[in-house]
Every structure is written in C-alpha cells, then in structure tokens.
From TrEMBL:
Coiled coil: none
Keywords linked to the UniProt accession: DNA-binding, Transcription, Transcription regulation
PROSITE patterns: HTH_TETR_2 (PS50977)
GO molecular function: DNA-binding transcription factor activity; transcription cis-regulatory region binding
DNA-binding region of this protein: 35-54
Pfam families per record: TetR_C_11, TetR_N
Name this protein carries in UniProt: TetR family transcriptional regulator
Start and end residues of each HTH tetR-type domain: 12-72
C-alpha cells in the first residue's frame, strides 16, 4: 500500500497561507459571517487553490482552527500556585490578542456548526486536562483545597475576557495577580467554612 505524501514545497506554503488567512477572517468576522470567497484574496492565491483543497467551507474552518489546536497556554509547576496561575492568565490575555485567540473566541460563540464546535471543544478539553493536573498536585501539596477544574477555569479566565473586550483597559501582571488572589482566597475561605467546590 502506497502511503500518501504530505504536501511540501510550494503546495505546503500555499496551504499555510490559506489557513492563516482563514484564521484572520474568522478572527475578524466570526464563523457565521465568515466569507469563503474572501480567503483567496486575503491569502494572495488563486481561488481554485482554495476550492480544490477545501470544497466544503466547514472543512476549511475546522482545519484552520485545528492547525493551532495543539497550542497550549503554558501552566508551569514552580511549586508556587499563585505565580503559576498569574503567569497563565497573562499568557491567556496575550493569546486573546492574536488572530487565533480571537478566532477561537468567535468560534465558541457560534453554535450553528457542530463540527466546528467539536473542534473547539477538543482544544479546551486539552487545556482543561493540563489545569486539572496542576490543581491535583496543588491539592496534594496543601496549596489549595480540592476544586472543580472547570469551575476554577471559569473563575480565573472570565475577568481576562472582560478586560479583552474593553479597549481602554490593559491587562497587566497586577490584574493577573489580583484575580488570582481573589479566586484562591475565595476557594480557601469556602473550604474552611465547610463548602464544597470539588464538583460542579
């Protein structure tokens, strides 16, 4: 059985241009308003290069998002949970300023394309697994009471998205540390009062 060759050389460069252009358009317009016909112009390639490789619009969107799907926002384990979470929030804020970050947010807000939704869910599932692992180690060390990772993610990341939506606000380390301190203090206080945040 002959194994199919991966596209290389000029073909690979053309595909990369098309996928990059797709992400940029998704970042600008979102999935619903994404215009398949604009991709070639933005990529600087002939329309047939788009239509031949991706006859289906959704396939192009999915591949463009999947191309970056393995990107992980770094979550270190220095033994200092406060520093690690603050660094994570700064990295998240930085990603939201990139075309892929904006495209990801726009894709999440669109619920009409199940295949696209599944792709985005896979990205977040991988990130959630990384966070879960870090929180489990923090719990074992006594840094933090048991907490549901999804709940924790919503608590720390929600404010970052709010900052991103305000052009007059800058997200700095000060904001990252304030959010981290408030969330960690709230979790610890709730646990000390007998509250259970280990499951949602």
């Amino acid at each position: 059985m002959t194994q199919a060759k991966r596209p290389g050389g000029r073909t690979a460069r053309v595909r990369a241009k098309i996928l990059t252009a797709t992400v940029e358009l998704l970042a600008r317009d979102g999935v619903s308003a994404f215009k398949y016909e604009e991709v070639a112009d933005r990529a600087g390639v002939h329309k047939t290069s788009v239509y031949r490789n991706w006859p289906d619009r959704n396939d192009l969107v999915i591949e463009a998002l999947s191309r970056h799907a393995d990107q992980q926002i770094p979550l270190a384990d220095t033994g200092d949970l406060r520093t690690d979470v603050a660094d994570f929030l700064l990295a998240l804020a930085a990603e939201l300023e990139t075309p892929f970050g904006r495209a990801l947010v726009n894709a999440v807000q669109s619920r009409e394309y199940e295949e696209v939704t599944s792709t985005i869910r896979g990205v977040f599932d991988r990130r959630l697994a990384t966070l879960r692992s870090r929180l489990e180690r923090a719990t074992l060390r006594g840094e933090l009471p048991p907490v549901d990772p999804l709940f924790f993610t919503h608590m720390i990341s929600g404010p970052v998205h709010l900052y991103r939506n305000r052009a007059d606000l800058t997200f700095s380390r000060l904001e990252a540390e304030r959010i981290t301190d408030v969330v960690l203090a709230g979790i610890r206080a709730t646990a000390s009062q007998g509250g259970d945040l280990a499951s949602s």
